[in-house]
Amino acid sequence: MVTTSFDHPLLPNVHNDEEHPNSAHQVSNDSWFQVGIVLSTGINSAFALGYAGLIMVPLSWVGGVVGLILSSAISLYASTLIAKLHEYGGRRHIRYRDLAGFMYGQTAYSLVWALQFANLFLINTGYVILGGQALKAFYVLFRDDHQMKLPHFIAVAGFACVLFAIAIPHLSALRIWLGFSTFFSLVYICIVIALSLKDGLEAPPRDYSIPGTKNTKIWATIGAAANLVFAYNTGMLPEIQATVRKPVVNNMIKALDFQFTLGVIPMHAVTYIGYWAYGSSASSYLLNNVSGPIWLKGMANIAAFLQAIITLHIFASPTYEFLDTKYGVTGSALACKNLAFRIIVRGGYIAITTFLSALLPFLGDFMNLSGAISTFPLTFILPNHMYIVAKRRKLSFLKKSWHWLNIIFFSCIAVAAFVAALRFIAVDSKTYHVFADL
Fold this sequence. Notes:
globular; mainly alpha
């Protein structure tokens, strides 16, 4: 049996046994509240500043509000299913692919790992773009000379993410950084809400009609459906649940309840108020719409940039855990060999992510693509089917039918969203050159 231990104060000893599968990262260390903050950090990332333009504009009031509320309820339901399967078969499954492999076999293990890696890679790409956009927005507040382009700011954001990835060895070590993340989120969300309310009260009546032709409206609606799922996506729920203390299932459900009650309020508020204030002209980065004191907007942009760095680390942690475990990273996090490993491996991973972000900086398209190819399967389709497999002898015909209905419905939506995402990327690739300054 493998036992992995760490000497650094941020890395208490970790013992792996039958209940704790081998991992170089901490298991069963965090409170449900800390895990709830981790989950809420993803929901209230600076991506939330884009939902007024990417969800509400193509769906308008009825479709946008109903869609966000329904996707909240469905996401909570699907996440609860996965949480309840964490100890399926009398053992803990600390990775999504481990659970899939245990239930379906090696092929499912490989497929889920591929989907999850694609999902997290695209999310990480989006966060690097987001960080670059926030830095550029801050820069043009003071110097609109066009000497610095978006790719330059994306490179700076990527470098900052590398430094953070080197400094924070694993997910549980975030600790105080989760407090900073919450603070940064509140800074830009409160500033955007305040400035949007001011603009909305002073502006003439807004146009809330869905823009575009009948054909483009259809594609935009499908893309917005993918964004609805992306808003609540983790794609790594078992990996997050691995960090929570016993009783694992009960504590994870507490964390999910926190995420989908208090945790979603800021995101919903900034989305609805932003759309109310700017209507169909709401952009994919709401700070580009608001008017107000330069110093206040600058503070919001810097807060969005810093929060993006922390949140990227959360969604990159399964990849880091895989690499650290595969190559046997043990001992002090400050040991020269471990520092060198993080510099080379994590730095290389983020360098690739940053290059792709600068090459094709279409933030909304990456959200659409991520939702289509991996979020739908990982967040909605697989949890329902896994629950059928795990509880097949205990489920009534009606309950089985409900889960199969979810599987079929979200499979169809996933295919449509994938086609729409490819179309958006193709259109934007023709409109903008590579390394575009958007």
